[in-house]
Task: structure prediction
Amino acid sequence: MSTTVTSPRYRFDPETLKALAGLQFRARYIVEGFLSGMHESPFHGYSVEFNEYRNYQPGDDLRHLDWRYYARADKLCIKRFEQETNLQFHVIFDTSKSMAYQGSKAWCSKFDYAKVLAASISWLLLKQKDATGLLTQEADGESAKAKAGEASRAVRGPQLRFLKPSQKPSQFGQILGQLENVPPAGGPCLATLLDNAPRLIRRRSVILLLSDLLDPAGEVQEQLKQLHYLGHEILVFQVLDRDELEFPFDQSNIFEDLESGVRRRIHPDQARKGYLARFEAFQEQYRSLLRTLEIQHLVLPTDADPGRALAFFLAQRKMFI
Amino acid sequence: MISFLNPWLWLGIIAVGAPIWLHLRRKDREKVVHFAALRFLEDQPIVKAPPLSLKNLPLFLLRLLAVLLLVTAFAQPYLVKSGGVTTSSIVYVFDNTLSRQAGKDWERDRNYLLGQIHQASSRQQIAVVELASQSRVVVNFGDSPAQAEERVRALQPTSQRGNILSALRQATFLLKQSLGEQKQIVVLSDDQKNQWEENSSAPPFLEPGLVTFPSFSDVATRPNFYVADPKVQSVFMGDRAFVQFTALIGRTEDVKSATVSLTANGREILHRAANLDSKTDKISVVTQWEIDPTTWLQGSISVTAQPDDLPQDNVAYFSVPPVTEGKVALLSQSLYLHAALSSAVSRGHWTVQELQPAQLQQTLDAPEADADILMIDGNYLQSEQARQLVHRYLKSGRGVFIMVSELSTLLTGFLQDLSFDPQTRLAPNASAPLTPIRYFSPTSPIFKPFTMPDFSNLLEVRVGETIHLAAREAKPILFSQSGDPLLFDGSKEGGRYLLSTFAFDRRQTDWVIHPSFVPFLDSALQYLRPQSTLNAVLEPGEVWLVQVPVNRGVKKVILSADGKKVGETEVGPDRRAMVRTPDQPGLYTLSYDNDPAIQQVVAVNPPAKESELTYLQAKPDILTAWTLDKPADPVKTAAATQPSVRSASENLWWMLVLAGFAALFLEMMILARRGHA
Result:
């Protein structure tokens, strides 16, 4: 079974994506567009039936016996893949105010881009019957709507919304609802999300972190380490705007921080060099940290093709199996 | 000091919050970039929020000024004399009629008035109403003392008659709009008795105690000899013209004798002494003389007597217009009418335009050829064109003489339009015997000459059976033996008409062969001739209506005295002009446009009532009838429309409003300019 992921042949059209109303339609556009460009199904080999067995050996846990198979074949077998391949996927979504930034070249804000990504990946996973959950934080807990579903519950501490992983068909709607109802607001929340993740994610899971990673690396270092040591596989999708990557501004203006409200008078000609240097150093800190923790990291500019993220994800997933 | 009529409108000052907010709000002029990665620009300077400060100070001040000006304007400021609240408002009614020229009261009262104006404090308001032929406000409450003094000094004695009721009403109206807490009307008059005996039935309108008299005449009467009410009437006896003249001569006090002089066209007609006994206060002067009927008669009658405190009423003027050849349009079968109006008989008096029944339409199509009078047999009125012609003559102010001998359906309808009610439809009995005329109206101008004994005897005229008509509007002036009206005098649609109930032919009357026929015809036609509505004798200051003739295209009428122009008036589209007589009695000529020809001579005479110099010694009783039982509801001066505000502060209001809008306009221009920049 070849699981080679080839580059998608569909042409990413940000205007079409922008014109699509609704997160679901955008997610399906990306996924199906991505999939239609592949000549081999990536799902080949990822059968839902997981029908690999091994013979019962004395001492195996009788809870894992496939009693139906025994009834049919009068043979004792233990279901292996069902147990060993049943991973849960958790999407941890950064909802800080900095995610609301939209540059002049982007078709949407970082937050919208990340939402589309999260929805696309969730749809892809749920289509494969993989249990998928969602963890977000709201700056104002009262703004959370019941549309997030009964599966979503308010957790003590910062207003976290945790959607337990499930592979039910209705899970996608729940995920979409939670994504739609959470606005980008408040200060840095990545540390809080990662701080609570070990408590909420009990089983070994795949954690998909969608964030701009503009919080200092030192603030999340310990949390990432803990998650890593707990055996979770972590994928980081860093969503950044082209303006943040290149600082293309050319006019003097007052710049106001989205989260802190601090204002600075910026002369781009004078500030660009220093900005890029510091930004690169900051990125290097994260790269170093993630490399150390063997966490896969993908930087996604908001003007880039979201299919690239899917390709990366699928390539990494193969490694999880 | 400025006060406000609507002080509560100052709540509008809240509107100044608008420009204050506009200029204080933190509206960033610079573009602010909301950036997520500002942490990497820590070396750049932090911009602190500036303290609240007014931006664009000049624009802010301009907007503030506009709001303040408009709010102030709507609060309606008015100027109050320095010194505080106005305590009193006084209206002086200054009697400026002819009788005031007797004695020295006029000059005394004017000086008194000037003194009152001069020493009035800032808390007093003074107004002056002049009592003359038309009461007028000489000084208003809002006028400055200097203006008031100037206008009072400019007053001149007049020869007019005034209505005291009108002056008091005017004064009351002024006081209702005054600011003073105490209000008063002071009458400066000679308190002529007959002046306070008019309009006794007027409803009450004065506040109790409002009217005061500083003083009354110290004498009950003054000696005066006067002439009044001259009347002239031209009378024709054959080819000769005479004028009958009457006038009234009166006196107050014990003036024993006077000398009367009558002159006409420069010729002394009469000059003699008139003796009045103690029981007679008025006598009539009656005389007549022959005149040239082709020229204007202008004359005067004067009296001289001693003592005479009012010599201004010793002369009365009169005038008589010349007689000119008239034009008669004749549509009749009567040979006698044709003969009487022929050139051989009526040369110099009348020319005849004989109308043809078959050419009436042509006559209708040429209105410019209409004569002065239309004489028409009633039979012809069965023609629609003839009826139209009659109506056209009447509408254009011309005269019509209708001779009706028989009735018909169409004629009955026509007569009913003239407000006649035919009493019978039967034709008169042509063979009925002729009977003498029983009665003619001696006061009618047509028959007045026949009252003279040496004039032809009308009662010899005989008339047969006639149609019977009852008139609802016309006046019968000639009656048959049986009492039936034979001749009616009426007016319709602006023109005069005479209607006879018989035809001028031998079958119905022998008048046509009587010596009085031609004089009667001439007198009747003279009476029907269209004339100006001007009454030749007027009083000073009187306004009268001048009707100019048709087809003359007159644009203005000129009034002159002794060849000098004293006034002119525009003629309206209805060929009428409202002319005001000069104040000075005398003879004035009326002419049209640049034509020097005299169209009318007007005699302006002093009003006779002003000559009765009998005075009140106490407050007139009529004031009681004009005074309210209880004071009327007080008018809040703050809410009333006040002439002082209107005159002194309306300008202020307009200035404030205009200044406010000017400020807004300037603000708009500044913004527009900045927008372009």
In short: Residues 1-10, 39-51, 81-85, 142-151 of chain A have pLDDT under 50 and may be disordered. Chain A touches chain B through 33 residues (CB under 8 Å).
